[in-house]
Every structure is written in structure tokens, then in C-alpha cells.
Amino acid sequence: MMKDEEYIKDTKIIEKTELEQEREIIMSIVKAKKELENLNKNFEYAEDELIDYYTYQIKANQSKIDYLVKKAKNKRITLNMLQAIEAKLYDDKAV
To answer: Which single residue of 25, 39, 43, 66 has CA 20 to 30 Å from 76?
Structure first.
């Protein structure tokens, strides 16, 4: 017979700072844009049933980007911030 034990979660949930939230949104937009580029490339070579698959994926990804851009606008994240992050990511990959 096992004794019932109470488990208490002892990890504290830490709220993200405004800057961390902005970075997360920007990184999500950059990632979604790269995914969209790859989906469009794959769509060009898709055959038969994969055409429907990539069409669905492209539409879903575009909806995600639209949502993230709207969220970024609400937080007043500027295009310059987005471009700076994209440039940094490109430079980091080139090294």
C-alpha cells in the first residue's frame, strides 16, 4: 500500500522582460519567414498529393506570420529592429 504524497512544484515561474518578449517575437517572425521560403521552394517541385500539402503549409505559415506581425505592431516593434536581427542571424551563419 502506497502512501499518498503531495507534490509541490518548487520552480518559480519567471516573467519575461519586455525586451525578451520583443526578441522572441522578432525571432519567431524571422524563423517563420525562413520556413515560408523553404515551403515555397518545396512547392515548386511538389507532385500529386504534395501540392495540397504544401499549399496548406504555406497558408498556415502565412497566417502565423500575419499574427506575429500584428503582435509586433501592437508592441511597437519597428522594422529596423527586425532587419537588425535578420542581419545578425545572417552574419552569424556566414562565419
So the answer is: 39
**Three-state DSSP state, 29:** helix
Pair 26, 66: CB distance under 8 Å: no
Quickly count: other Cβ atoms within 10 Å of residue 29's Cβ: 21
The verdict on pTM exceeding 0.85 is no
Q: Per the domain annotation, does 41 fall within a domain? A: yes
**Is there a domain that residue 12 lies in?**
no
Residue pLDDT, tens place only, 11-47: 444 567 877 888 888 889 989 999 999 999 999 999 9
| DSSP symbol at 48 | T
Q: Which of 58, 19, 18 is nearest to 38 (CA)?
A: 58
Range of the domain at 24: 19-94
